[in-house]
Design goal:
The strands form six sheets. The protein has a five-stranded mixed beta sheet, with no helix packed on it. The longest helix has 5 residues. It has one helix and 24 strands. By secondary structure, it is an all-beta fold.
């Protein structure tokens, strides 16, 4: 990679010691960054995230919401104060979380009936029409990941599998004009693009937008900026790549000091990066020490606001 913009982050912004930190989401009403720890079954909240960086990150203490099932992603609900209720992807499908009742959630629609214990949800995003795209995949403890998952399209009372036979469905996003949808399949190291109809939500003309062939990492979660470029975290190489939304070329790179970058979220012109533990790293090495931390870097561009889920019949 030559002639690209580069940023190097050397220290964490916060150290929640996530086993598998994922799904960062900016909650504007409370100026909070919320994220999930899939393995610890937690939703983690950091407050005052738009404030200038002027505190020791290790002292930044989060609020922890403990669940009895793994949360994998969260979203806001249109017309609902997120201090009251939010949308959550959980092991069995799509649910709402009551923020006033510690850890209490209500299932909206499951992936499968009866429940398939082999599978769990993964990454998910509300689409421009207020529906929710949520992937499912082989759960931990059920052997090697298999192509038994898929990408599902949810409303509050229905679901449809729109892409079957996936192994690890991951980051999704839309171009600023809503005419292109991006979708990640991690094990094939491919970021796909689809033509997208913002009036109907129809997807067509699937093609590979970017394929990672220069290293061992797998593409993970992503966000799209207001200039139409994709910021994609890479699990295994400690980096986030900025990928041109039209050409698919790499035009920027953020490097973090731990191997497993999982997802990103914009707050203003700052990019927050979640990570997972590096259990294979050297015991005294930076990658193992900082695995599960949250990183922050000023990148000079804003992200597209994430869409909200519509509770409609």
């Amino acid at each position: 990679m030559v002639d690209i913009q580069q940023w190097t982050v050397t220290k964490p912004w916060a150290e929640p010691q996530c086993a598998l930190g994922e799904g960062p989401f900016y909650e504007a009403e409370t100026d909070s960054l919320r994220l999930v720890d899939i393995k610890k079954k937690q939703i983690v909240y950091f407050k005052d995230v738009s404030a200038p960086e002027n505190k020791v990150s290790a002292a930044r203490q989060p609020e922890i919401v403990q669940l009895d099932v793994c949360p994998t992603v969260t979203a806001d609900i249109e017309g609902v104060d997120p201090r009251q209720r939010i949308l959550v992807g959980v092991k069995y499908g799509l649910a709402t979380l009551d923020r006033k009742a510690e850890g209490k959630y209500e299932m909206l629609v499951p992936f499968h009936e009866p429940r398939n214990e082999r599978l769990r949800s993964n990454d998910g995003y509300a689409d421009p029409l207020g529906r929710f795209l949520l992937g499912c995949m082989t759960d931990f403890g059920h052997g090697p990941f298999q192509p038994e998952g898929g990408l599902f399209l949810f409303t509050n009372d229905s679901k449809q599998e729109i892409i079957p036979n996936l192994t690890i469905p991951n980051g999704t996003g839309w171009s600023p004009d809503l005419r292109t949808m991006y979708f990640t399949h991690s094990p094939t190291r491919q970021l796909f693009a689809f033509d997208y109809d913002p009036l109907t939500g129809a997807m067509s003309n699937k093609r590979v937008h970017y394929e990672h062939t220069s290293g061992p990492a797998e593409p993970d979660g992503l966000r799209v900026d207001v200039e139409g470029h994709i910021w994609q975290a890479f699990y295994g190489e400690g980096m986030v790549l900025r990928i041109d939304g039209l050409s698919g070329k790499v035009i920027g790179k953020v490097t973090v000091p731990t191997k497993n970058a999982t997802c990103v979220q914009f707050v203003g012109e700052d990019l927050f990066i979640t990570t997972a533990a590096d259990e294979d790293g050297e015991e005294e090495g930076e990658s193992r020490r900082f695995g599960g931390a949250v990183f922050r870097v000023h990148v000079g561009v804003r992200g597209i606001d994430l869409f909200k889920f519509k509770m409609k019949n």
